[in-house]
Amino acid sequence: MAGSGTIRVSPKPERVWALLAVLASLATLLIEIPAALLSEGGYSFTQQPISHLGVTGCGDWGDAETPMEVCSPAHPFVNGVSIMAGAMLAIIAFIWHDWIAPSRWGRCGSFLLAAGGMLLAATGMVPADIDPTLHAVFGFGGAAVQNLGLVAAGLAMTLWPEKRWVWRVEFGRLTIILATVGLVGTLLLSAPTGWGLPIGLIERIAAHPFLIWFILAGWMQLRDAARRHRELEAGA
Q1: Is residue 96 helix, strand or coil?
Q2: pLDDT tens digits, residue range 189-209?
Q3: How many domains in the chain?
Q4: Looking at the domain assignment, is residue 93 inside a domain?
């Protein structure tokens, strides 16, 4: 009891999952900033991959002709956030299968997004300097699966009669746009090194749409829950 005639009600589960989705995704994005600032020898968001922030040792990294000094004292936090956030987003993706759309496309999108979350967690479990090949498989495979999941989720929401809106943009279409951007980045990750593409920028174009989608989806659910609460209070 919180006073005479007043009962304190716990937040609904969907609000909790929505808030966790927003926080987990934001943490994965924002942890890069302090980790980069703490990196010894400097760090370039455009020229260096995210994996450099998670390496557990210090030394030269990259091609023999153009080695790059890499040393990230914040690697336990970067890898820890990837593991916890990836696992959390995987669970949330499964829970959200009906919210995405109660259809085959919705279930497909939910499964692929959940798999993408687990692959994000796997990149934190296997840093690039521990097993470069396995880390690269998890990273590239994760980006591909995550963005394919966004394609399926976007199609599911676009085809479902009940539309959702982010400001003035239909969320299903926005999801497909995010997926397209992410898939372009994923394809560019396999481009020859001779092209001289900014690997850090390309990697973020491939990986960040997945996190941005969870932030937007979680925010939408929190917004809608707050609106329903206001409507119930107004009708009481």
Answers
A1: coil
A2: 998 877 889 999 999 999 999
A3: 1
A4: yes
